[in-house]
Specification:
The protein is mostly helical. The protein has a single domain, classed as Citrate Synthase, domain 1 (Orthogonal Bundle), CATH 1.10.580. The protein has 17 helices and five strands. It has helices at 77-83, 86-95, 101-112, 119-126, 134-148, 158-184, 197-206, 217-229, 237-246, 252-264, 271-282, 288-296, 315-331, 336-347, 351-355, 362-372, 380-401; strands at residues 5-10, 15-20, 61-64, 69-72, 75-76. A hairpin with a 4-residue loop joins strand 3 (61-64) and strand 4. The longest helix is centred in the middle third of the chain and has 27 residues, at 158-184. It is globular and about 80 Å long. Bound molecules: acetyl coenzyme *A (ACO). Acetyl coenzyme *A binds at residues 267-269, 271, 295, 301-308, 356, 358, 361-363. Acetyl coenzyme *A binds next to helix 16.
């Protein structure tokens, strides 16, 4: 009779252990009973980078990396990108269900009415150097919000959590836009509450002397779809940071600042910026084969390719590739698209990339769209951070409600010296 257990024989002692299996996993703590002696600490697993460790149970986002599937709360990403809008998706991520009309209206009104930031936050942003990276400004300012909303420390109070979630989703585009305006030396534009989420963000970015900024509706929709595609991606590096920081009961602004910092790295949300720099470096289509050869010889990576989870085409990349065509009809074709298409064509035929299951990820084409929409490259990770805030907050809230969770505190294998006696400086040699 099949049993949901794993029998382990410890060849060091000859002892056998029967360990329960649930949801295709064993509990690492169940290995602790496997000991060679009374004084032995017990067996642990060693898993740097969490290559094969589930750190939580989550009902938010489902990914099947082998089959290229991504779903939020069960809904396929392709359907959401086609039929939903970002604010509805954010609601879905946070509350678990698509909103009914009245719920949506209340949610949209609530987010809209939290878009303003305190004037002192504006002054704080004024203090950044003229050439400060907008992502650095965003990370710092998100963290600084904790000093304005001290009630956010009540993380065990669901009502307080709800309020902070609304504030963060609402204010992050305002801070992002102010960071951009600061970097180009333009006056800040206050939110226009009559506009939708993406359109309002575009107004705060680009409004000059006109009374009302009217963004092109195709570009508004494109940005909204990009926001949907980036809203959550289960336990990635930044989400793991959000959960880890939040697990100490830190306030959500501090945790979100840490998550945003993790997102900034070029191996994560900074990849779209790195893709554009790479395309610039390649310069022309005829230099693509030489660049691919260099990557295969170990000189750098093909940015925007490869993913820890997707070992098949990233479903977000497929939608973005289509979206790029719609955007280019309005903005004109980004000349770098030809280089990107050639890179993709050659890489997908090359055994190096095929055998390692390296396919374009979400960032391979998103930068081309952002650039065509006139976003400076520095703003790319910021554009990722805005929608991902909703995913981080959904994951943070889920973590705080999860009875299995405690403060995140991994173990280590100590590889340093054994005990030794302190020596005075004169005894230490050269
Ligand atoms: N170009 C060339 N070779 C690559 C690439 C790449 N982009 N990605 C992985 N490889 C190679 C590795 O060198 C390794 O080869 P080896 O087996 O000969 O040593 C093999 O493929 C496996 O790669 P790992 O680094 O083990 O894969 P891992 O899961 O740790 O890394 C990651 C995933 C970080 C995304 C990686 O593919 C990468 O650096 N890609 C480029 C950066 C990028 O586009 N990041 C965005 C990810 S999507 C997101 O965060 C939104």
């Amino acid at each position: 009779m099949a049993k949901n257990t794993l029998t382990v024989t410890d060849n060091r002692t000859g002892k056998q252990y029967e360990i329960p299996v649930a949801d295709g996993t064993i509990k690492a703590i169940d290995l602790r009973q496997i000991r060679t002696s009374e004084s032995d600490f017990g067996l642990m697993t060693y898993d740097p980078a969490f290559m094969n460790t589930a750190s939580c149970r989550s009902a938010i986002t489902y990914i099947d990396g082998e089959r290229g599937i991504l779903r939020y709360r069960g809904y396929p990403i392709e359907q959401l990108a086609e039929r939903s809008n970002f604010l509805e998706v954010a609601y879905l991520l946070i509350y678990g269900e698509l909103p009914a009309k009245a719920q949506y209206d209340a949610w949209a009104a609530d987010i809209t009415h939290h878009t303003m930031i305190h004037e002192n936050i504006k002054k704080l942003m004024d203090g950044f150097h003229y050439n400060a990276h907008p992502m650095g400004m965003l990370v710092s300012t998100i963290g600084a919000l904790s000093t304005f909303y001290t009630d956010a420390r009540n993380v065990r109070d669901p009502e307080s959590r709800r309020l902070q979630i609304h504030r963060l989703i609402a204010k992050v585009p305002t801070i992002a836009a102010f960071a951009f305006r600061h970097s180009v030396g333009h006056p800040y534009i206050y939110p226009d509450n009559s506009l939708g989420y993406a359109a309002n963000f575009m107004s705060m970015l680009w409004k000059m002397v006109e009374t009302r900024y009217e963004a092109n509706p195709v570009l508004v929709r494109a940005l909204d779809v990009l926001f949907i595609l980036h809203a959550d991606h289960e336990q990635n590096c930044s989400t793991n940071s959000m959960r880890a920081i939040g697990s100490s009961d830190a306030d959500p602004y501090s945790a979100a600042a840490g998550a945003a910092a993790a997102l900034w790295g070029p191996l994560h949300g900074g990849a779209n910026e790195a893709v554009l720099r790479m395309l610039d470096e390649i310069g022309t289509k005829d230099r693509v084969p030489g660049f691919i050869r260099a990557v295969k010889e170990g000189h750098g990576k093909l940015m925007g390719f490869g993913h820890r989870v997707y070992k098949n085409y990233d479903p977000r990349a497929r939608t973005i590739k289509r979206l790029a065509e719609e955007v280019f009809e309005v903005t004109g074709r980004n000349p770098k698209l030809d280089i990107a298409l050639e890179l993709e064509r050659i890489a997908l035929q090359d055994d190096y990339f095929v055998s390692r299951k390296l396919y374009p990820n979400v960032d391979f084409y998103s930068g081309l769209i952002y650039q065509a929409m006139k976003f400076p490259v520095d703003m790319f990770p910021v554009l990722f951070c805005i929608p991902r805030m909703s995913g981080w907050l959904a994951q943070w809230d889920e973590m705080l409600r999860d009875k299995d969770q405690k403060i995140a505190r991994p173990r280590q294998i100590y590889t340093g010296n054994g005990e030794r006696d302190y020596k005075g400086m004169e005894e230490r040699g050269g």
